[in-house]
Each structure stands twice: as structure tokens, then as C-alpha cells.
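Q: I have 151 residues here and want to know how they pack in 3D. Can you give me a structure?
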Amino acid sequence: MISFELDASDVELYEAARRMLLTAHHSENHRVAAAMRGESGAIYLGLHIGAKRLNVCAESSALANARMAQESSIHSVVAVSMDGHGEPQVTNPCGLCRELLRSYGTETSVLVDAEGEVGKIRIKDLLPFPWMRAAETEWDTLPPRVEAGTA
């Protein structure tokens, strides 16, 4: 599941997102930055884009940048937001980003805030049961039922 054994590439990814947020942070329009490493090793940045009625997550813009660069898959990702002291810290992906990231590869590693300590987890472990239409599964789901002898 989660590992707390980070390596230099994980720290490099965090530092890239941190620099982006320190450069572009705005309390309403640019609250989160993300960095994503493609299988090629290249790092792609993303920035939260916000307005009064609409927000686009940083992870989605980083993913768009990676896909435009023809990355076939994503190796790892981290998002950062400002803490109460104006310092970037790792923040966990929202539910929409978990769904989005999982649809581009189940083995992607995500740096997460595990109650104050940064850990690394695969997206499929972070979101074990993604949303799917019944026609998109490789199985047929049986209807719920009560087993005989249980109430």
C-alpha cells in the first residue's frame, strides 16, 4: 500500500511543484500546483485555474501537458498547496483527480499527505474502485441480496 521510502526523484518532483506554486500562487485563482513525471522521465507542471464559478485542478493541467508532449503513461505525480504559513506542502488529489489519474494508468505513484508525513501510493490503491459504467467492466455484477440465514 503506502510507502514512506521516498527517493531523489520524488523530492525532485515535489520541488518542481513547490517552485511553480511559489511563482504563481494566488489565493483564489492559483491555489494548487502539480508536477507529473512521464515514463520518459520528463516533468510536466500544472496549475490550478480558478474563477468564481469554475475550477480546473492542477493535476488535470499537468496531465494535459504530458499528453500533448506524447507521454504514453505517467510514472508519478504530486500536488502542493499553501499551508497557513505560506509554505507549499503536499496535498492529496481530490476525487475527480483520482478518477482522472487512474484512467491514465493504475500503476502511477502519487505522493500523499499521510497525516503529516509524505508517503507514496499507487493510484489504484488510492482509488481501488473507480467509477465505471456497467458496459465498461469486464464482469457482470450480481444484484445485491441477503444470504440465507442472515437478517
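Q: Anything worth noting?
A: The first helix runs from residue 8 to 24. The mean pLDDT is 91.
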